Amino acid sequence: MSADRSARGFIHADYSSNHVDIPESFLTGPAADPVTFRPVPWKESDVPEYAKCKAWILDNVLSREECDELIALAEASAPREKPEDSPWRPALISVAPGVETRAPGYRNSDRIIWDKQLLVDRLWDRCAQAEGLQELVATAPCSRPDHKGNKKGTWQFHGLNERMRFLKYTPGMFFRRK
After folding, report:
1. What Gene3D superfamilies does the record point to (predicted)?
2. I want to staple 162 with a disulfide (CB 3.0 to 4.6 A). Which of 91, 93, 104, 117 is the partner?
3. What pTM, to 2 d.p., does this model score?
């Protein structure tokens, strides 16, 4: 990266991670409680302008213990210069391919980025335990035009993005303050 970009606060995106052994039994069985989903209640939320958008909340995908283990695995994946360094780094925003910068008025949190297809496959398998979710995802109407400008058809689900993003907010941190 050029010295000019670095001086302006631009950072080369580096998503490398440590090797982490995933326990064979982690997230391979059924959820402790039934996985359910419900639509995001946009009209009653702090962002009612999204009322025409579709998003769902999934409950019971992970138990508290599984959440704790997943966070510990993510923390183990994060490279550190010194063992005593925190695995959490300030969350940046992408400004160009492979280039990120801080945007403190938009995002103020810490983050770990970890690419691990095995885990996202297991997470999707767990999400898919929600009765009716796979059918809903398979038949969600397209709302954005394809490369030809058409809005016909339905989305076809192929899997979760392998790039997991873990965000951590401590008092005073925020995502897009109004």
Report:
1. q2cbj1_9rhob like domain (2.60.120.620)
2. 117
3. 0.83
